[in-house]
Design brief:
The chain is mainly β and about 250 residues long. Helix content is about 0%, strand content about 50%.
Length: about 250
């Protein structure tokens, strides 16, 4: 791992750039905006319209392997932009994470358009301060919208490729439960958190399942079998996200 050293040239802006290799093979580059922030105090209201297509995305933490990209796209129109997540990597994913003001009662709203309904996956999660994956909702590979209640995955309806769906999540850390609305209709009520969290403060979008391996319990000296066909891309899966709102649940008047 290394940063920009003397003689490497001067990168644009005032950000921190870090490069590193994975197993001395893939080369990764991280751009870290300065100053660093670990909290925000303004509710999220992102339409992406002010960001040019392919331009730098402010306030979001993105993970973009070569075969799984995250960028702003001119869709639905040249003036109405959206966040595009795409994935054709058989073993990796794209992700985008957005902080919102810490809240015990939180509401997250976003519009999602899936480019397909027979493959590809988009996981929508509301996270705690330590990364607890409290709320887990997914546009799944078989055309269904799934939710995780405790440790059980259940279907909460279907989605249609090429159509915008309005997703609303209302979550409470007091009860460790949430409601899910799709197109303003409740499809899952009083769903248990998958993981308890004392506070909620992040929205996560990811084009694949959460990875848990390897762990400290694995033998790092053991010979691991090669993963099959790593150089063969999967069919391209595309998801667009727009009109993201996230923050403390409004107090009823």
């Amino acid at each position: 791992m290394r940063g920009i050293a003397e003689g490497n040239g001067r990168p644009p802006g005032n950000d921190l750039w870090v490069t590193y290799s994975s197993n001395k093979e893939d080369i990764w580059v991280s751009r870290v905006p300065l100053p660093l922030r670990d909290t925000v105090d303004t509710p999220v209201a992102d339409t992406f319209d002010e960001v040019p297509p392919g331009g730098r995305l402010p306030d979001w933490t993105t993970y973009r392997p070569r075969w799984a990209d995250v960028r702003v796209a001119a869709l639905p129109s040249s003036r109405n932009h959206s966040l595009r997540l795409e994935d054709r990597d058989p073993y990796d994913h794209a992700s985008a994470v957005r902080l919102f003001p810490p809240a015990r009662e939180a509401e997250v709203r976003l519009a999602v358009l899936a480019g397909q309904e027979r493959h590809g996956r988009l996981e929508i999660e509301v996270l705690g301060r330590a990364g607890e994956r409290a709320v887990q909702v997914a546009f799944e590979e078989n055309g269904t919208i799934g939710v995780t209640s405790g440790d059980t995955r259940t279907a909460a309806g279907a989605y249609t490729a090429g159509r915008w769906h309005r997703i609303t999540i209302r979550a409470s850390t007091t009860s460790s439960r949430f409601d899910l609305l799709v197109d303003d209709r409740i499809v899952a009520r009083d769903v248990r958190f998958a993981v308890e969290a004392p506070i909620l403060e992040r929205l996560s979008l990811r084009t694949g399942r959460h990875r848990t391996a390897p762990t400290r319990d694995d033998d790092r000296y053991a010979v691991q079998a090669d993963l099959p066909h790593p150089d063969d891309p999967d069919p391209l899966a595309v998801f667009h996200v727009d009109d993201v709102r996230a923050g403390p649940l409004p107090t009823p008047r």
